[in-house]
Amino acid sequence: MSDNVIVKIKYLGGINMLNVNKVLEIHNVEVYGLHQSIVASGYAMSDDVTPPDFLEGIEDGVGAFTYDNDYKRAKKLGSRPTNSGHPCYLKGVVVQFDLKAPEYIWRQLDRYHFIDFVTSQSKMHCLPKFELDKMVNKWVSPVVLSEVQKYISWYNNFDEAKEKFKYLQLADGSLVDFTKKNLYNMIVSNCPCGLLMTARMTTNYLQLANIRNQRKMHKMDEWHYFDQWISDLPLFDELTGTKCEYPLLKRNEKGVLTK
Questions:
Q1: Cα–Cα–Cα angle for 196, 98, 10, nearest 5°?
Q2: Helix/strand/coil (H, E, C) string of 23-79?
Q3: Cα 26–27–32 angle (5° rounding)?
Q4: 206 three-class SS
Q5: What pLDDT, on the 0 to 100 scale, is given for residue 51?
Q6: Which of the residues 23, 50, 234, 248 has the least number of beta carbons within 10 Å of its own beta carbon?
Q7: Phi and psi of 120, rounded to 5°?
Q8: Are 184 and 202 in contact (CB under 8 A)?
Q9: Beta-strand (E) ranges in 65-115?
Q10: Confidence (pLDDT) at 40
């Protein structure tokens, strides 16, 4: 092995952000296990694994790979198809971040097994408390917003509202009693898909590579914003041999990806 120090990166914990107002936001990003996983990518072909000093060369958040062979091997393996088994070491590179996204993006994100919620905002607990006009994306119709806000107002002022109304009308034209429970069902059922909710997420480079592969041609801009943010992660493009094909954002003076 060569003793050359060939790669230096800066861990951008809490720095590499994305902010497209009223559309998508990513904050508080942390990456773990990058150097360790690159070295471990060679374990399968090693007959004697001597635990390396992973912290060698790391100072003030800047890390260095001691051996160029590790980096070359990691790039070769990481660029293979995600379902081939070869880039499995990418599972060891853990990424955590806060994501604010509309409801329809969360439902699409749910289909992936290896991106998980640490915790999130809750509609069940807080929907009647939300200032809905400040928490929806720009595509929500003011007519829809006004209708849901009306139900929320009735719910929060139920004693007064029940003196004025006896029934609620449903989509099929039928009527139900004007109760707090039925009002809550109306609020939840009519809440717009453009509601922006925030969650802390945990995932890994392999899962993000698969998301990139599947969403790169998606019709929703939010996925292209997310894909461009993926390229901001340390060495992601280099290790996977991929790149964002439709970059729509620019970087402002603070280094944040934005419109």
A1: 140
A2: CEEEEEEEEECHHHHHHHCCHHHCCCCCCCCCCCCCECCEEECCCHHHHHHHHHHHC
A3: 105
A4: helix
A5: 60
A6: 50
A7: -150, 165
A8: no
A9: 94-102
A10: 86
Residue 194's contacts (CB-CB under 8 Å, 6 or more residues apart) are 102, 103, 104, 136, 137, 138, 139, 140
The CA distance from 115 to 81, in Å, is 19
Region of poorest pLDDT, from 13-22, 149-158, 182-191: 13-22
Strand, helix or coil for residue 123: helix
Which one-letter DSSP state was computed for residue 118?
E
Would residue 102 be called left, alpha or beta, if left means φ above 0 and alpha means ψ between -120 and 50 degrees? beta
Rounded-to-integer distance, Cα 98 and Cα 160, Å: 39
The number of angstroms, rounded, from the C-alpha of 230 to the middle of its chain's C-alpha atoms is 10
Angle made by CA atoms 246, 252, 253, in degrees to the nearest 5: 150
- Backbone φ and ψ of 161, nearest 5°: -65, -35
Write the single-letter amino acid at 1: M
- Return the structure tokens found at 51: 């635990």
Q: Which of 3-7, 122-126, 203-207 has the highest mean pLDDT?
A: 203-207
Burial status of residue 137 (CB atoms within 10 A of its CB: 0-12, 13-18, 19 or more): buried
Tokens of 256: 């944040």
CB-based contact 115:207 (threshold 8 Å)? yes
Q: What would the two tokens of residue 48 be? A: 């004697």
User: In whole angstroms, what is the distance from residue 17 CA to residue 257 CA?
Assistant: 6
Structure tokens at 60: 């003030």
Coil vs helix vs strand at 207: helix
pTM: 0.84
Which helix or strand (DSSP H or E) is residue 197 part of?
strand 196-204
For Cα atoms 68, 69, 71, give the angle at the middle one, nearest 5 degrees.
65
Render pLDDT for 144-163 as a digit per residue (tens, 0 to 9). 999 999 999 999 999 999 99
